[in-house]
Design a protein that fits this description.
Blueprint: E1 5-9, E2 12-14, E3 19-27, E4 30-36, H1 40-44, E5 49-52, E6 57-60, E7 62-67, E8 72-73, E9 76-77, H2 82-91, E10 94-102, H3 109-120, E11 127-133, H4 139-150, E12 155-159, H5 170-183, E13 186-190, H6 194-206, H7 213-218, H8 221-238, E14 242-244, H9 250-261, E15 266-270, H10 272-276, H11 279-282, H12 303-313, E16 318-319, H13 352-361, H14 367-381, E17 399-409, E18 428-438, E19 441-445, E20 448-449
Length: 468
């Protein structure tokens, strides 16, 4: 029965709800009990393995509800596989990802989902679930949505952007939302007016404006705000909840805040790149700006304050990464001379927990709010809470021992993502992961990877625990 019981002693346990000096007993891959340090209960516990967490935080493993491993985009593929991407996630203290399976136009949802099951099966170091990207809303795909919800794929992403690739018009969006209002699924929306953006792209290129910074200039703040507003109204008409992904602009946050103030079940996510990076990065010379091309795009620095405020006031509930890495050499370079051909996406799955801890150090958010936006809220939003996102009896033993005093410098030379640059190269942060357990098994220990491909299990998700 060795390695059956693990005891984490001496740490400060932080959840979204509380901070307590408690010892944590883990049995058979789950949290068995918590007890106050020095209490009779804690003193009586025995375990096969004891992890000393003195002067450390003991936190739930991160839940990154927005990743794109091996995503086909713009004639290439995201450079992280499920194997490399989930290892990198573990290094950064994330123990669950929810990735996006993609429906190909003309194909059933099932074909896309099966392709993603196959990509991930036996490869993942941590647990994983799937959302479904709906590229082709029609009678049969609407019917399939019901079946997927029953199978634990309880969220569906639609795009107001990327005409000719993932784009759905308002009628298709409304139909999908109507379906989700009855089957319990949650619609996730990429809210940018892609039809209008394409006109601006064409005009910019015709003027010879081909550098990466023009990617940010054509994808206007107003076209994100307009699409966010429109998505909210369509969801109201359908009587469905709505989750807006990668919110980057103050005006879009205002649309969400207004809807939430009116009592609507509308939710928003932002990402570390919008909180820490800006159009200054897109304007970096010698095509370096291409490293920062993602959509929604990075915004002028003044938008950051509104995003932090939204996270504090709960107008934004979740920070995910939208991890979608493309190497600078050979992938981002496809867009030299034409910014519209730069693959859209940034690496970040390994950096999220540390960057958000830095936000605690900087005074943007509290420690409990850090855990809320990175662990508990994404778990609740996507039907994982109870198993994931907290440290409580019965929960999966996805636990991170975190050193709040350690200092590190983020760099491509030391990260574990399969990409040749870091979006945060040279950034000094305080706080670092020390030990990571996934369902009670050690994945990271003492700056060494102890996990294995295939430990990570597929997790069928319930319907959203925020609404309904």
């Amino acid at each position: 029965m060795s390695n059956n019981r693990t005891l984490i002693s001496g740490g400060l346990v932080i959840t979204a709800a509380e901070e307590i000096h408690a010892d944590v007993l883990i049995e058979d891959g789950r949290i068995a009990a918590l007890a106050a340090q020095g209490s009779t209960a804690a003193e009586s516990w025995t375990a096969d393995r004891v992890i000393d967490a003195t002067d450390k935080y003991v936190i739930p493993g991160g839940v990154d509800a927005h990743t794109h491993m091996e995503l086909p985009f713009g004639g290439t593929f995201a450079s992280d596989t499920f194997e490399t991407g989930t290892q990198a996630a573990a290094w950064g203290g994330t123990t669950t990802i929810v990735d996006f399976a993609v429906q190909t136009v003309g194909q059933p949802l099932r074909a896309g989902l099966d392709a993603w099951y196959a990509k991930a099966d036996g490869k993942c170091a941590i647990d994983y679930g799937f959302h479904m990207i709906l590229s082709d809303v029609n009678e049969s795909s609407l019917k399939e949505m019901d079946l997927l919800v029953e199978e634990g794929i309880t969220s569906f992403k639609l795009f107001m952007a990327y005409p000719g690739v993932f784009y759905s018009d308002d009628g298709k969006i409304l139909r999908a939302m109507q379906r989700s209002s009855t089957n319990g699924g949650l619609i996730m929306m990429h809210a940018e007016n892609g039809i209008a953006i394409d006109v601006l792209v064409e005009q910019a290129l015709a003027r010879g404006e081909t550098d990466p910074r023009y990617h940010g200039e054509v994808r206007k703040v107003l076209l994100e705000a307009e699409a966010t507003h429109r998505a909210i109204q369509l969801a109201r008409v359908a009587g469905a909840p709505l989750y807006v992904v990668h919110v980057s602009a103050e005006e879009a946050v205002e649309e969400l805040a207004r809807a939430r103030d009116a009592g609507l079940p509308v939710f928003g996510e932002t990402c570390p790149q919008y909180l820490f990076l800006s159009t200054d990065n897109l304007a970096e010379p010698d095509f370096e700006g291409s490293k920062y091309v993602c959509s929604t795009p990075l915004r002028p620095r003044e938008h950051q304050a509104a995003l932090w405020r939204g996270l504090r006031t709960n107008d934004l509930q979740v920070v995910s990464t939208d991890h979608c890495p493309f190497c600078f050499v050979g992938q981002k370079e496809l867009g030299r001379g034409d910014f519209s051909k730069i693959p859209n996406g940034l690496p970040g799955v390994e950096n999220r927990m540390d960057l958000l801890h830095q936000a605690v150090v900087d005074g943007h958010i509290s420690r409990r709010r850090w855990i809320e936006i990175a662990c508990a809220s994404p778990a609740r939003m996507f039907g994982l809470y109870g198993k994931k996102g907290t440290i409580a009896p019965g929960a999966d033993a996805d636990v991170v021992v975190y050193d709040p005093a350690a200092e590190q410098v983020m760099s491509a030379a030391t990260h574990h993502m399969n990409v040749d640059y870091s979006a945060y190269e040279g950034k000094r942060v305080t706080g670092q992961v020390e030990t990571v357990l996934s369902r009670g098994e050690v994945v990271i220990e003492g700056r060494e990877f102890k996990g294995r491909a295939g430990h990570g299990a597929y997790v069928a998700r319930g319907t959203t625990q925020y609404v309904g």
